[in-house]
Design a protein that fits this description.
By secondary structure, the chain is an alpha/beta fold. The protein folds into two domains: 155 residues; 131 residues, Glutaredoxin (3-Layer(aba) Sandwich). 45% of the residues lie in helices and 11% in strands. The chain has a seven-stranded mixed beta sheet with strand order 2-1-5-4-3-6-7. Strand 6 and strand 7 form a beta hairpin. Helix 5 packs antiparallel against helix 6. The longest helix has 15 residues. The protein is elongated. It starts with 11 loop residues before the first helix and ends with a helix.
């Protein structure tokens, strides 16, 4: 089973299962044309230990000098398999493996550029079934050592952007304009207790409108707001105040609606790679879920209502 470049998510669970089966039966390949996995000794039994063994030796037979492999399904599938295995490995072996991978990539500039860009696509974007920001941050820290200035600058920028508003950290603060023209900050709008959902939206975005509709009519969300357990802050960050004001009437009265005055975009305070972007916060501003889905938010509210 392949994990193709367009991220066929319906197959991803099966692909993970195949990888686990492969390391447990010491199968060198998932399919005949695949890059071979290291064969794990039968004496190594646990999933983590076998994953550690695989990631530590994963690239030992890959020819980074062969640029004809770049862009092929063979190379991309090898990377997808590798990134999947990293999620099962322990911290030490995973960090060492990523360091080795980045160093091997530096042996050929074309290979380095290809694997750097493709790793970003797999680990960073929301539509990827392999999305994993903590591992992506580890990868970026190693590619910061690149001799390629473009890769170094991109790594530095992405480390700052992706590293913001991670779960367990304080949400970034920004200046906001309220409908009555007064200025405030996100931190000033946080509730005294309960939880807070922050939604960055664009009224021209169909996905935003769909998500806002679901939030508006979600029974758990409406109950949480009416019971004082939740505050929802909707922030328009696209810069067109006229459009924002024209659509204010469509927003629920019990939401706090505001517009970014420029901080969010100009200082890249939030990673708005897709719209809408949702965050779940504690009342003190600590991030609980970054890039939350509607389902995650609703489930959290159901769990906390019990």
């Amino acid at each position: 089973m392949k994990l193709f470049p367009m991220f066929r998510t319906s197959h991803h669970g099966l692909h993970r299962a195949l990888l686990l089966i492969a390391i447990f039966i010491s199968s060198p390949r998932l399919l005949a044309q695949d890059y071979p996995l290291p064969q794990v000794p039968d004496s190594i039994l646990s999933v983590n230990a076998r994953a550690n063994y695989v990631v530590e030796r994963f690239w030992q037979h890959y020819d980074f000098a062969d640029t004809t492999l770049l862009g092929t399904l063979y190379a991309e599938q090898a990377l997808a398999n590798y990134l999947t295995m990293l999620t099962y490995a322990d911290d030490g072996p995973r960090n060492a493996s990523i360091a080795h991978f980045a160093e091997a990539c530096r042996s050929n500039r074309q290979a380095e550029q290809y694997f750097f860009k493709t790793t970003e696509r797999y680990l960073y974007y929301n539509d990827s079934p392999l999305r994993n920001e903590p591992i992506y941050l580890q990868v970026l820290s190693r590619f910061m050592l690149s001799d390629d200035e473009g890769i170094r600058l991109r790594s530095q920028y992405m480390l700052g952007l992706v590293g913001r508003n991670m779960p367990g950290t304080m949400v970034s603060n920004c200046q906001l304009r309220l409908p009555d023209e007064s200025l405030t900050t996100l931190h000033s709008l946080l509730p005294q207790s309960g939880a807070c959902i922050v939604v960055f939206y664009d009224p021209d975005c169909e996905t935003c409108l769909s998500t806002l509709f679901r939030l508006k009519y979600s029974v758990p969300l409406r109950n949480a707001i009416s019971q004082g357990r939740l505050r929802l802050i909707a922030i328009y960050a696209e810069g067109d105040e006229k459009q924002w004001r024209e659509t204010l009437g469509e927003m629920p009265k019990n939401w706090t609606v505001a517009m970014d005055t420029g901080d969010v975009r100009e200082q890249s305070l939030f990673d708005l790679k897709s719209m809408p972007t949702l965050l779940l916060l504690k009342a003190n501003g600590e991030v609980v879920i970054k890039d939350a889905t509607f389902k995650e938010l609703e489930q959290h509210l159901l769990n906390t209502a019990q």
